[in-house]
Write a structure and sequence with these properties.
0% strand, 2 domains
Length: 329
C-alpha cells in the first residue's frame, strides 16, 4: 500500500470517522468510490492498458494459428495442400551447387544471387520443419512491422497465400520501408528480385544522390564480399538471369508481361517522388516484379506504413519507427 498518497491512505488503512466514533475503513478497502469522494479517479495501472489487450490478442491468435497450420502442412512431397513451396528454394540448394536447379517457376528452383543464399545458409542446417517454423516466424514479424497491431490479424489473412508459400515479398516490402531511412536496405531487393530496384528512381527523381549512392555502394560491397568467397557463383547467376529474362510466370501470376508493366512502374515512382508520396514506391516495385505473382501483391502492405508524410520537415523516419505505444494507444 505504500504507493498510495497520504490523502488516500486513510480510506484504506485507518478508515474514516463516520461521526459516531466508528471507522468505516473496512468498506473503503473494497469500494473504489472513495476515490471519487476526494476528487480522484480510479488508480491507473502504469504500463497496462486493458483496452489494448483484446486487439493485440486477436492478431496474435490469428498469427499463431496460421503459423501452426503452415508448419503442419509443410512437407516436401507434391500435392495441393502443401506449404513452403517457395521456402524450399532457400533450404534445399547447396552453396557448392547453387544453380543445380534453376528452372524458374518450378518448385525448389533457386534464381537469386549467391549473396542471398550465403545469408540464409545457416538456417539450412535445420531440419525442414524447423526451417519452415523459423522462416514463417520471420515473415510474421515482417508482416507485423508493416501492419502494426491494429491491422495485424487482417494482414495475416490477406497475406495467407504468401505466408503459406514462404516467398520473400514481405521481406522486400520491409526493405522498401526502411530503405527511406537506411538506403543500404535496397541491396536485398537488387540481389534477389532485381527489377523492383526500379524504386531507386525515387532518389534520382528527387535529386537525393547521396541516398542513391549509398544504396548502390552497399550492393557493390555485398557483391565484393560474396564474390571473394564464391567467385565462380556470380557468373553463373548472370547466366541464370539471362536464361529466364522475358519469361512469364505460371497460373499463379497476373498475366501481364514485365515489359508492359515496367513503364507504368517508372511513371508511378517518378510521379510519387515529384509529389512526395512515398507509398508509390512499393506500388512501383510490385509492378516491376519479374512475374507479378499474386503473393507479390502483399508488397502493397507497405502502403500502411508509408501513407503518412513525416511529422517534421526534413524528418526521414517512416511511421513504422514510431514506438508502438504511441501509435496504438
Amino acid at each position: 500500500m505504500m504507493w498510495l498518497t497520504d490523502d488516500v491512505r486513510p480510506f484504506v488503512l485507518g478508515g474514516v470517522d463516520d461521526g459516531h466514533g466508528t471507522m468505516g475503513g473496512c468498506a473503503a478497502m473494497t469500494d473504489l468510490s472513495a476515490y471519487r469522494v476526494i476528487g480522484r479517479g480510479r488508480p491507473a495501472w502504469r504500463g497496462f492498458d486493458p483496452g489494448r489487450l483484446p486487439r493485440l490478442s486477436r492478431g496474435l491468435v490469428v498469427a499463431c494459428a496460421m503459423w501452426v497450420l503452415i508448419v503442419v502442412l509443410a512437407q516436401r512431397d507434391s500435392g495441393a495442400w502443401v506449404s513452403g513451396k517457395d521456402a524450399i528454394s532457400y533450404w534445399a540448394p547447396q552453396l557448392d551447387a547453387l544453380y543445380a536447379q534453376a528452372e524458374w517457376t518450378t518448385v525448389g528452383a533457386y534464381v537469386y544471387s549467391p549473396a542471398f543464399l550465403q545469408l540464409v545458409s545457416p538456417l539450412q542446417h535445420l531440419p525442414w520443419l524447423a526451417f519452415v517454423g523459423v522462416w514463417t516466424a520471420m515473415l510474421m514479424f515482417a508482416l507485423r512491422f508493416l501492419t502494426g497491431g491494429r491491422l495485424f490479424a487482417i494482414g495475416v489473412l490477406l497475406a495467407a497465400g504468401e505466408l503459406i508459400g514462404g516467398n520473400i515479398s514481405l521481406l522486400l516490402a520491409v526493405a522498401i520501408v526502411i530503405g527511406f531511412r537506411w538506403p543500404a536496405a535496397w541491396a536485398l531487393i537488387l540481389l534477389t528480385k532485381v527489377t523492383p530496384g526500379i524504386g531507386l528512381l525515387w532518389f534520382a527523381a528527387r535529386g537525393e544522390w547521396r541516398n542513391l549512392s549509398i544504396a548502390i555502394a552497399a550492393t557493390v560491397v555485398v557483391i565484393a564480399v560474396s564474390a571473394a568467397v564464391m567467385p565462380w557463383a556470380w557468373p553463373e547467376w548472370i547466366g541464370v538471369l539471362t536464361n529466364i529474362a522475358g519469361r512469364d510466370g505460371t497460373w499463379a501470376a497476373v498475366p501481364i508481361p514485365l515489359l508492359v508493366r515496367l513503364p507504368f512502374a517508372i511513371a508511378v515512382v517518378v510521379w510519387g517522388a515529384r509529389t512526395d508520396r512515398r507509398w508509390t514506391v512499393p506500388v512501383a516495385c510490385m509492378l516491376a516484379l519479374p512475374a507479378l505473382w499474386y503473393g507479390g501483391l502483399t508488397m502493397l502492405l507497405a502502403i500502411i506504413v508509408l501513407r503518412d508524410r513525416p511529422r517534421h520537415a526534413g524528418e526521414e523516419l517512416p511511421q513504422a519507427f514510431v514506438p508502438v505505444a504511441a501509435t496504438e494507444g
